[in-house]
Fold each of these.
Amino acid sequence: MTERTLILVKPDGVQRGLSGEILRRIEAKGYTLVAVELRQATPELLAQHYEEHVGKPFYEPLVEFMLSGPTLAVVAEGERVIEGFRSLAGVTDPTTAAPGTIRGDLGRQWPTKVLQNLVHGSDSEESAAREIGIWFPAL
């Protein structure tokens, strides 16, 4: 089933110059890049994106991290791309992410309150539709 997902290369990935390598892996997996834009997130955009986390202890540090530099926002399309990208990304903790995954190969543990784990990928078709609408309203 062909679907779309939102992928974010978070500020740590952009700052470390890993955007190209992450995009290469997405394309090597056979997914199509539908939209790619380097953006500086705003507090308003992040409040929409992370609305389910508002009020949680990690929300403010997460927003602060996501505002710390540009984010590469990507819409990718392909067969089971949501599940496939999440597998390609690896588990959220870079220390335990499997070798061969983006986080396993490229991620590092940071001594911060927020897990800086390079990428975000939508977790369901519903989330993907909502998140793509936030980051790419014209699509």
Note: The first helix runs from residue 11 to 15.
Amino acid sequence: MHQFFIEDHQIGKEYVTITGSDVNHIKNVLRMRPGEKIRVSSVSGQDFFCEIAELGDAFVQADILDETVPKTELSSRIYLFQALPKGERMEYVIQKAVELGVYEIIPVAMKYCVVKLDEKRAEKKVKRWQAISESATKQSKRSRIPRVHPVMSYAEALDYADSCDVRLVPYENERGMQATAEALEKLKSAGSVSIFIGPEGGFAPEEIDAVRQSMDVISLGRRILRTDTAAICTMSLVMLTLECS
């Protein structure tokens, strides 16, 4: 079933109205017709099963059939702070993190990042990354589209994560899984969780020193993981812990 997103003011008592680029997508790309079923989500997280009733030139009206739509969002907000990786790995991380339930994604410029983006390139990248987030949201039937932030410095990222209840930092030089298990246990009572993933070159010693007293520095096992693998591994651990709590 295809999914579309609307603003709250587009919700009526018995129907929703879809406007914008989705109208052309519904009519001319998907070639949908009245009577076909769709799933509609609003920016505030409301979900509806609907049936297309009318296809106008600039709108699609769909009757609300059911408001008891299964919820797909995690119980906690997950903020993924991802060091800028090489190539298309950021696109992969965004896609998979959205599927796993991330709330926001924050690209971070760290000391050992190979990729260096100027303001113009960064703006273009973020626009592309946001489109990937939206596509992955629809594919995985999420109720809200995770925001991809503009690129932050490491100091800015630490400030932004300061209010999170639990802050996880997977570190390749950390040893022992007991601390990881203890950190994951904290998630069961956490409303918000931040995850800091280092770059291909790893965290700089001073970057780890800056968080040891305020965050949970954890291990992901005895093997060295690529930055994109580490992100998906940590997101999976967090998702599983929250879904089982």
Note: The longest strand covers residues 47-55.
Amino acid sequence: MKKRKQYSPLHSVHNRMLLFAVLFFTCMNVLSWNVQSFTDWYRLKVFPVWTGTLGRFCGLFPGSVGEMLIAAGIVLAAAQVFLLPVFAGTWVVERREKAVRGGQQSNPKTSRIRLSRKWDLRLVCWILVYLYGTETLNCYMMYHASTIEEQYFDTKADYGVPELVDAYEKVVAKANVLAGQVARDAAGQAVYGGTDAQLYAACKKAMQAQGEKYPCLSGYYPDPKPIRASAFMSQQHLLGIYFPFTMEANYNTVMQPVNVPATVCHEYSHVKGMILEDEANFLGFVACIESEEPFLQYSGYLSVLSYLAGQVRKSVPKDLRAGLTQATGQVIADDAFLTQKQWELVEEKAVVSTETVNRATDVFLETNLTMNGVADGVQSYGRVVRLVLGYYQNTKLVD
């Protein structure tokens, strides 16, 4: 009797390739956690390759490739659940008819179902490995690179109330002036005076200018992508999102237009490997306020105003707060995610309640950040205040 060979998953070249890919990406992740100098080198020298290849390729498409892939994934997952048994049954019938005609004695039903499941499983495995790999190389590793403060500011600086008040006063004063200089539509919303293409070009120029101070920001930038499902995005209270698996900077089209420049520059920071949220907030701020365009400047100042105002309420005595410059009514109206009318439109289209969607998003963001070593999770967004204080203490602005 012929001895039956024992099956081993590693005998398959396909399985060995999958295992190698998983081990490689895992090793890169572990290395980034333990060797900061390697991660800094990777972000500066290797990461731009992904922006210049995958980002450039996805930039050829007018819409968000990442959003399309997510939608396709949802459709395919539904198809797997509801349609695969139907198609598998059809293939079995066709194979059985062919077997009868050819006089074959095999069992086509068993072989056909096994074949369809085998290739289906392989596709799922490679999709998961691709996501794991791109998330690792284009996102997770950068959480462990040197911070902006470590590289460019004084990490031992002790900022207090005077520095906070100084930064707050400058931001509020600039916002109050710019509120009267930007163009507005019939509804009174601050809008950009040019086309979307011109706005994108202005954001790219603003970010590339920052590349002189922060080398990671130099080089190629793809066009930002508007998200079609912006109403659902609004329910998550998201202004923008970066897709590591397509290297795209995406933004919400429902929010007030004045939020777009700072949001695009924020997401562009991620595209360049500056993955920490407080740093992306900061880079979006400085890129906008140092640009030549008043609309970008206004967007930049508004992007940090609420963070500074919140810290002022926490840290500055009430009697001192009373004497500070106050934001005008127009600035307060502009410094909002959505207008009341926009929220009403979002709620009309909502399939799931905004409260549920927002709660799920908060859990996801908190989990993602803490898993990658950001101990304070979503609270880390507010650390942009320290960077703004450091900026004003290290920069002489020309009024």
Note: The radius of gyration is 26 Å.
